[in-house]
Specification:
Strand content of chain A: 15-25%
Shape of chain B: globular
Number of helices of chain B: 19
Radius of gyration of chain A: 19 Å
Low-confidence stretches of chain A: none
Order of helices and strands of chain B: HHEHHHHHHHHHHEEHHHHHHH
Order of helices and strands of chain A: HHEEHEEHEHEHEHEHHHHH
Oligomer: heterodimer
Number of strands of chain A: 8
Largest interface: A-B, 62 and 59 residues
Helix content of chain B: over 70%
Shape of chain A: globular
Number of domains of chain B: 2
C-alpha cells in the first residue's frame, strides 16, 4: 500500500487542493462545457471546494473559482456558465466567450457529456476556433460503459488535435490523467494542434482568408486571427469595439 | 509609436472594418448558417469516427419508460405530489423524537445551569435577562425545533435533485408558466426558491429576457422556503392533525403543508399572469429545457453536502438572527412604562387591526421582529404569548420549560389561538414580505428600489387579502 502513495503514477496524492486560496497562481484554467455535464463536480475534484452540484442545467449562475497545485505549479481554475454554443448572444454565452478570448486562460478545460458526444463537440469545435490550448474531459464515461457504447478516446484526441481524457468526475476516475494533461498543455510540454473547420463555400472562404490576412497584419501576435475575421464577417459589435478601442491589440502585444 | 503611425493604424483598422462590412453585404445572412452547418457537420463526422454503438440496442430503455411516466400528461402531477408528500411525511414523522431530545437537553438541562451560573457570579439581572432569557432561549428554541426537520428534509430533497427529478418537475410546470406569460425556466428558479428565496432570486439569472426575469424575481417569494417549512409543519402538526384520528395525523399534516405549498404555486402563477398582462407586458420567449439523464444519487456525498451546505448554513443564519431577536424580545417584554411592558402597548395597538384578518397583535408584532429571518416567527410568538398572558408555570417574559409539541399547543391555545388562527398564520407565512436577506438580494439583482418595493408590497397585499377572506368566511359559519 505504501508503494502506491509514492508511485509517480499516483497523481491525486501529488495534487494539492488549495480551495479558495488563489494567490500567486502560475496558470489560469477556464472550465467550459455544455450545461449539466459535471463542471462543478470536476471543479470540486480538483480544488477541494464544496461547490453545490445538482443534476439540472443552470445550477451554477454565480462564477465559481478555486485553485490547485500540481508538479510545483499553482493553477487557478474558473468555472464558466454552461453553454451549448458561443455563437448566439445570450448573457451566459457572452461571459464564457469573453473569458476565453479576453481572459486568455492558459488552458481551457472543456467538460463534455460522453453520452451526447456529437452535440457536445459543437462547443468543443467552437472553442478550438478561439484558442489552441484545450484539454477535453470526457465525463460520465461510466454511463457510456453502462450503455455498452465504445468511445475511442485516442482517435478522438487525434481528430481534435488536443488531449481527450475519459473521466468519471463523481468517483474521481481518470482525474489523474486529466490533471497531468492540463499541466502538460499549460507548461507547453504538450503542443496542441487543434482541428479547425476548414472548408466553407467559395465566396465565404475567400472573404475569411482575405480578412484573416488583414487581421494578422494588424495584430501579428493574435493566436486566433481567423476566428476574429469570422466574427467581423458576422458583424459582431463587441469584437469590432475591442478592435477599435485597442483592447484586442493590448492583449496580444 | 509615432503619431503618424498611430493615425495610419487607425485608418487601417477602419479599412478592415469597412472591408468586413462590404463582404457581409455581399454574402448576406447565409454566413452564420454556413458556419453553424460547418461546425455541426464536423462534429458529426468526428463523433461518428470515435463512437461505436453496441450491435444490439437494448430492447427497452428504462430511462425512456420512466420519463414517459414522470412527464406524462396524467401520471406526471400525481407522482410529483406523491413524492413531495412522502418527503414531508418522513420529515414530520422522523423529526419528533430528536426534537424532543434536543429540547430536553437545551432547555430542560442546560438552561437552568446557565442561568444559575450567571446568577452565582453576580451578573446584573438585566444582563442575565438579555443573554440567557433572551438570546440563549431564542437560539436554543430555533436549534431544537428547526435542526431535526432540516436534517431530514434537505438530504431527501437533495437526493431527488441528484437523481434528476427536479428538471422533470420543471418540465411539467413549464406549460403553466408559458400560459401565464412567464418564462418556462421560472419553474426552475421557483424550485430553487423552495430551498431559499434569496438563492432563487439569484438563480433567475438563467432567464435572458429582463421582463420575464423580473416576473420570476417578484414571484419567487411565493415558493415556500427553508425558513417557513418548519413553521408550516409545526402548525399543521399542532392544529390540523388533531382533527382526524391519530393514525391519519401524519398524513393530514403532510397534506395540509402540501396544500400551502400548492397555494404558493397558484399565487406564483396568478401574480405572473397579472404582471405580464399589466406592468410587465410581453410575449414569453422560447427556450429548450434539457432533461438530464437519471443518475444514481450518491447517498453519502448527498448527506454530507446537504448537511454542510444547507442544514448548517440555514441553521447558522437562523442562529445569527435569533440571537439579536431574542434580545429585542426580552427588552420589549421587560422594559416597562407605567408598569406595563412596551410589547403590551404594541400588541394592544395592533390587536383590533389583526382581528379582522383572523390573526392577533402578537403574530403581527412577531412578523415585524422576524423580518430578518422567517425562522424565528414561532419562537417570537411563543415568548410574547407567555408575556402577555402571564401563563401559569411560565416565567414572565421568558420562554420557559416548554418541552414538547403538546406544551406548545397548550400555550398557543391559552393565547387565544383557534384553527382559524393556525390556518391564517400558515397562509400569512406563505404570503408576506420576503425576509431582509431576500429583499437585499432583489435590490442587488434588479438595481431598482421600485421593483424591490413591488416585490415587498405584492405578497404582503395578497397575504392580507387571503387571510381577510378566510377570516370573514370563518366568522360567517361560526
Amino acid at each position: 500500500m505504501a508503494d502506491c502513495v509514492n508511485c509517480p503514477a499516483n497523481v491525486l496524492s501529488a495534487l494539492k487542493r488549495y480551495g479558495e486560496n488563489m494567490q500567486d497562481a502560475d496558470f489560469v484554467v477556464a472550465l467550459a462545457g455544455n450545461p449539466n455535464v459535471g463542471k462543478s463536480t470536476i471543479l470540486n475534484d480538483l480544488t477541494g471546494l464544496k461547490q453545490h452540484t445538482g443534476n439540472w442545467p443552470g445550477k451554477t449562475v454565480t462564477r465559481a473559482e478555486g485553485a490547485f497545485g500540481y508538479k510545483e505549479k499553482k493553477f487557478k481554475i474558473i468555472d464558466l456558465p454552461g453553454t451549448y454554443s458561443l455563437l448566439s448572444t445570450s448573457a451566459d454565452e457572452e461571459i464564457a466567450r469573453d473569458f476565453i478570448l479576453f481572459g486568455k486562460p492558459d488552458v481551457t478545460l472543456v467538460v463534455v457529456d460522453s453520452t451526447k458526444l456529437e452535440r457536445n463537440l459543437n462547443l468543443v469545435l467552437q472553442i478550438l476556433e478561439i484558442t489552441d490550448k484545450v484539454v477535453v474531459a470526457l465525463n460520465l464515461f461510466d454511463e457510456l460503459r453502462r450503455k455498452n457504447i465504445k468511445l475511442d478516446a485516442r482517435r478522438l484526441s487525434a481528430d481534435l488535435g488536443v488531449p481527450a481524457v475519459p473521466v468519471v468526475a463523481r468517483s474521481k476516475e481518470g482525474i489523474n490523467e486529466l490533471i497531468d494533461y492540463v499541466w502538460q498543455v499549460a507548461s507547453g510540454e504538450y503542443v496542441c494542434k487543434p482541428k479547425r473547420v476548414k472548408k466553407f463555400n467559395g465566396k465565404i472562404q475567400k472573404a475569411i482568408d482575405d480578412l484573416t490576412a488583414d487581421v494578422k497584419k494588424l495584430f501579428p501576435n493574435l493566436p486566433n486571427a481567423r476566428w476574429i475575421a469570422m466574427r467581423l464577417l458576422e458583424g459582431d459589435m463587441q469584437i469590432e469595439e475591442a478592435i477599435k478601442n485597442g483592447e484586442l491589440g493590448k492583449l496580444f502585444q | 509609436m509615432t503619431n503618424a503611425e498611430k493615425i495610419s493604424r487607425e485608418e487601417q483598422i477602419k479599412a478592415l472594418l469597412k472591408k468586413a462590412e462590404n463582404y457581409r453585404k455581399e454574402i448576406g445572412d447565409s454566413f452564420h448558417d454556413n458556419i453553424v452547418e460547418g461546425i455541426f457537420a464536423e462534429a458529426e463526422r468526428i463523433a461518428s469516427r470515435a463512437i461505436q454503438y453496441p450491435d444490439k440496442k437494448p430492447s427497452k430503455d428504462w430511462e425512456v419508460v420512466l420519463d414517459r411516466l414522470l412527464i406524462s400528461k396524467y401520471a406526471g402531477y400525481p407522482i410529483m405530489f406523491l413524492m413531495l408528500a412522502i418527503v414531508l411525511w418522513l420529515t414530520i414523522q422522523g423529526a419528533n423524537y430528536p426534537s424532543d431530545l434536543l429540547y430536553d437537553l437545551l432547555l430542560g438541562k442546560i438552561y437552568p445551569i446557565l442561568k444559575n451560573a450567571f446568577i452565582s457570579i453576580g451578573t446584573p439581572n438585566w444582563l442575565t435577562g438579555i443573554i440567557v432569557d433572551g438570546a440563549y432561549l431564542a437560539t436554543a428554541w430555533v436549534i431544537s425545533v428547526m435542526l431535526p426537520p432540516m436534517a431530514i428534509f434537505f438530504p431527501l430533497f437533495t437526493l431527488l435533485e441528484d437523481f434528476g427529478f427536479l428538471p422533470r418537475v420543471a418540465f411539467n410546470l413549464d406549460n403553466f408558466f408559458r400560459k401565464v406569460g412567464a418564462h418556462g425556466k421560472q419553474a426552475l428558479t421557483m424550485s430553487m426558491g423552495f430551498g431559499c428565496n434569496a438563492a432563487g432570486v439569484v438563480a433567475t439569472r438563467i432567464i435572458d429576457s429582463p421582463r420575464e426575469r423580473l416576473i420570476a424575481i417578484i414571484t419567487n417569494n411565493f415558493a415556500l422556503c427553508n425558513g417557513r417549512w418548519p413553521t408550516q409543519i409545526l402548525l399543521a402538526s399542532i392544529f390540523i392533525a388533531p382533527l382526524v384520528p391519530p393514525v391519519w395525523a401524519g398524513v393530514i399534516s403532510a397534506a395540509s403543508v402540501i396544500a400551502i405549498a400548492l397555494l404558493g404555486v397558484a399565487l406564483t402563477l396568478f401574480t405572473s399572469y397579472a404582471l405580464s398582462r399589466t406592468i410587465l407586458k410581453g410575449i414569453p420567449s422560447t427556450f429548450s429545457l434539457e432533461l438530464p439523464p437519471y443518475r444514481p444519487p450518491r447517498i453519502l456525498q448527498t448527506l454530507y453536502t446537504s448537511l454542510i451546505d444547507r442544514t448548517i448554513y440555514v441553521l447558522w443564519r437562523a442562529i445569527v438572527f435569533a440571537l439579536p431577536a431574542g434580545m429585542v424580545i426580552w427588552l420589549i417584554s421587560n422594559v416597562t412604562y407605567d408598569g406595563v411592558p412596551l410589547a403590551k402597548y404594541i400588541v394592544d395597538f395592533l390587536d383590533p387591526f389583526a382581528i379582522i384578518f383572523g390573526l392577533n397583535g402578537i403574530i403581527l408584532l412577531a412578523y415585524i421582529v422576524a423580518i430578518p429571518a422567517n425562522e424565528i416567527v414561532i419562537p417570537t410568538i411563543l415568548m410574547l404569548t407567555v408575556l402577555i398572558f402571564g401563563v401559569e408555570g411560565y416565567q414572565h417574559g421568558v420562554l420557559f420549560e416548554l418541552d414538547s409539541l403538546p406544551d406548545t399547543a397548550n400555550l398557543l391555545r391559552i393565547g387565544g389561538w383557534t384553527i382559524l388562527t393556525a390556518i391564517n398564520v400558515m397562509v400569512f407565512s406563505l404570503a408576506h414580505n420576503p425576509c431582509s436577506t431576500t429583499i437585499y438580494t432583489i435590490y442587488k439583482e434588479t438595481g431598482s428600489w421600485k421593483w424591490t418595493t413591488v416585490s415587498v408590497v405584492i405578497p404582503l397585499t395578497l397575504g392580507f387579502l387571503l387571510t381577510f377572506i378566510i377570516a370573514q368566511v370563518y366568522f360567517l359559519f361560526t
